[in-house]
Design brief:
Blueprint: H1 2-49, E1 54-58, H2 64-78, E2 83-87, H3 94-106, E3 111-114, H4 119-131, E4 135-139, E5 150-153, H5 156-171, E6 177-183, H6 189-205, E7 209-211, E8 215-216, H7 221-234, E9 240-243, H8 246-258, E10 265-269, H9 274-282, E11 287-290, H10 293-310, E12 317-320, E13 324-326, H11 331-340, H12 343-349, H13 351-363
Parallel strand pairs: 1-2, 1-3, 3-4, 4-5, 5-12, 6-7, 6-8, 6-9, 9-10, 10-11
Antiparallel strand pairs: 11-13
Helix pairs in contact: 2-10, 3-4, 5-6, 7-8, 9-11
């Protein structure tokens, strides 16, 4: 009997210890939850105490790239009690885009980000906006020497070099022949730079391959398709064809998809919407080089709003948004993030790229705005 009583006491002590442990865990959990809630509420309160600012991005046309830029900028604004508006024409019309900036001066906007194509058309409007007290910056296409001294975008020559690397890999060592590029606006510096980067890199990687002079692929989708159909029919022995404008990708894919046993490669800089990427996934296209639109929109808006709300000067110079090399091996992931199309998905997808850009901005000493056109590396 005594032994049984002793066991009873041991069980009672064990139960008490278990109860104490449970209480400790519950207190800790409540404390953690309270701390987390307090931290979350503090962050929300801090955002609400920031002065509301109204900024806009003036795009040249509606495209998958500009949609990604809009999403990035909208997210940045939403985090700091501000609003973002996308403006500009549905189809390429620089004059209409410039007119939007002129209207913003009297419409109460605190800041404007512009895709400044062609640069010379934006010089005076950007100066006028800055003189009126509006913060100005550029994204994608810069206006070097303008009042917008902060630019976010991909290295133009770097975009071309990245595509050349993918073509060289697909062609194999010691290839011989010619590659034909197309350009939708002949002579436009921001597009010419892409072809320059491609030609420079290809000469290093494949000395036996020459790059022909770019032909005018034109800007409208119907004439663009006709132009690519004609040049491919005229030059059937070319090793590859590539373009530097959104519409080039769709045209090249359409032409090659309808051809009988085509041997040539196709690729493009920009034009990285889901339909185009599916052609990479299937092997019809060798590669697409994306310009990280979400990153451009997010970073340009983030630093502009920091200047407006916290009096932190925007970075001075060109901040690289990196580039995205889309090949058959990663096409599925590129498609998935675009189909999800949320800020959370893009933030995760581009996390390393954003961190690298933010570190560069924090370090200071950014390269000049003009160097975006002449820098071969991303």
């Amino acid at each position: 009997m005594k032994r049984q009583a002793f066991r009873g006491r041991r069980l009672s002590v064990a139960a008490i210890l278990a109860l104490v442990a449970t209480v400790v865990l519950m207190v800790a959990a409540c404390s953690s939850s309270s701390s987390s809630t307090t931290s979350s509420n503090s962050a929300a309160s801090a955002s609400k105490t920031l002065k509301h600012e109204k900024i806009a991005f003036i795009q040249l046309q509606s495209s998958p790239l500009t949609s990604q830029m809009d999403l990035g900028a909208t997210y940045a604004a939403s985090q700091v009690n501000s609003t973002f508006t996308a403006q500009g024409p549905a189809n390429l019309n620089p004059q209409t885009a410039v007119s939007a900036l002129t209207s913003d001066v009297s419409a109460g906007y605190n800041g404007v980000i512009a895709d400044a194509y062609p640069p010379e058309l934006w010089m005076k409007p950007l100066a006028n906006a800055k003189s009126a007290g509006i913060a100005v910056a550029t994204a994608d296409t810069a206006a070097a020497g303008s009042a917008a001294t902060f630019q976010v975008g991909a290295s133009r020559e770097g975009l071309g070099a990245a595509l050349a690397q993918q073509f060289a890999t697909a062609l194999g060592k010691n290839a011989h022949g010619q590659i034909q590029p197309g350009i939708c606006v002949p002579g436009l510096a921001t597009l010419v730079a892409v072809i320059t980067g491609f030609t420079t890199e290809m000469k290093t990687l494949e000395p036996g391959v020459t790059v022909a002079a770019a032909f005018n692929s034109t800007g409208a989708p119907d004439t663009n398709f006709a132009a690519w159909s004609r040049i491919i029919q005229q030059e059937p022995s070319e090793l590859a064809f590539f373009g530097v404008c959104d519409q080039d990708a769709a045209s090249l894919i359409k032409v090659k998809s309808s051809a009988t046993n085509p041997k040539y490669l196709i690729g493009n800089v920009s034009g990285d919407d889901v339909a185009d990427i599916r052609a990479v996934e299937s092997g019809t296209a060798t590669a697409l080089i994306g310009q990280n639109g979400f990153v451009m929109g997010y970073l340009s808006a983030k630093y502009m709003l920091e200047q407006l709300q916290q009096n932190k000067a925007m970075p001075n110079g060109w901040l690289s948004s990196g580039l995205e090399v889309i090949t058959k091996s990663n096409a599925a992931a590129a498609i998935a993030v675009r189909q999800t199309n949320t800020a959370a998905a893009y933030l995760k997808y581009y996390a390393a790229t954003i961190s690298k850009a933010e570190a560069a901005a924090a370090a200071g000493g950014l390269p000049s705005v003009a160097s975006q056109l002449t820098t071969l590396s991303p």
